[in-house]
Design goal:
Distance between the termini: 21 Å
Helix content: 25-40%
Strand content: 25-35%
Number of strands: 8
Number of helices: 4
Order of helices and strands: HEHEEEEHEHEE
């Protein structure tokens, strides 16, 4: 997981979280427990976390792999470090993604579109 420098990542994550309503909402909890559950269940989608100060953070998963994190102005590993330092969260929501929605999230992070299930790459300017 690296910082991409792609200005559209926060916008794309916010858009996908709004258009794919949370299927599950938890009232608070610890980040490490949530990460372990999502990795073990091979979750694909966005995990939205509300910090105790009301800041929304988002983490992208593909088949259980943590791919990217956002927290305020931070992206990538620095965002994940800040999230791990949080004492807890007010709310945790899961936004499962598949097909074109997942491809859009992956393209925003990597800067390239990958046809899911295929190895063909298309570069995005």
């Amino acid at each position: 997981m690296e910082t991409t420098g792609q200005a559209c990542v926060p916008y794309v994550f916010r858009l996908l979280a709004r258009t794919h309503p949370a299927e599950q909402k938890l009232s608070g909890g610890a980040l490490e427990q949530s990460l372990a559950i999502l990795q073990g269940s091979e979750f694909s989608g966005i995990l939205t976390l509300e910090t105790r100060t009301g800041l929304l953070a988002r983490i992208l998963f593909e088949r259980g792999r943590l791919l990217h994190a956002l927290r305020g102005d931070l992206e990538g590993a620095p965002a994940l470090e800040q999230l791990r330092a949080e004492p807890g969260f007010n709310a945790i929501a899961l936004h499962p993604l598949e097909g074109p929605a997942l491809a859009l999230a992956l393209a925003a992070v990597s800067g390239e579109v990958r046809s899911l299930g295929h190895s063909t790459l298309v570069n995005v300017a």
